[in-house]
Amino acid sequence: MDVNATDNAGVITRGPRVTSKRCQNAVTVFAPFALALSGIASGVVPTWTTAGVFVVCFVLGPIGIGIGLHRYFAHRAFQAHPAVQVVLGILASWAWQGPVIQWVSDHRRHHRFADTGLDPHSPHFVRGRAARTTVGGLFHAHLGWMLSADVSDPRRFAVDAERDRVARFCSRWYWPLALSSLLVPAGLGGMLGGQEEALRCLVWAGALRIVLLQHLTWAIASAGHRYGEKRHDAQDEARNSVALALLLFGEGLHSFHHVYPGLGVNQPEHLDLNGQILQRWERWGWIRHLKRPEAAPSCSS
Hints:
7 strands; three-stranded antiparallel beta sheet; 5% strand; mainly alpha
């Protein structure tokens, strides 16, 4: 007997899977924050070496989130060589956004029901009801939804991801892969500057980097559905943000993305660094069948 209650929209509303997801999300949200805060409060001060490791690791974040989780696993905006798939799966897990399959499920549900009561993280609705205040709606979309989350059923929203060997592997081994995103910068710091530098890189290039990337990414779901430029042909409240586009390599071009979710290149293209990276990868033969804006009218989520 299935003890997880699933409604007609493909949302699991109660049961062990809901409890498990909320606990997992709580660790994902608070563990990096607690580690970063404790390290900084203890007087762990970065050096130039720390800053260098931070920059290298930070740059990998928008690639893992934007190209890996978003454009490849969620929207299949291109086909990738098996080695590229593995790298994208690892970088996606390093982002501390949850297991790949569950992220894909939530994101596709977000597109299917954007800015309605069934959207898992709209700032205009809180748990199916219109948000009472702007601040309350923004908090729900940014962070609160993860702590009171239901489960977007992968059997409804992510059947292809469940069949994908890389997505399955990365979802099954999410926590070891996520923890490795703390250990790798610490290891680099240790190689470059010994034990003290390893600690600095663990705190700054590991934990604090994760926290910053998390909140920038979550800002697309919250502020990115209230503030910024909205396309004239948009059917929901997604907005384009130049600031978020620059910080997240083009992911902040959210209104364009919601109109043409299946594309691998956003517009304006000069603000879409991830799109430029993908076009270069295509020239190198690492990926193929990259969906570009010329095909926009026929693309779907």
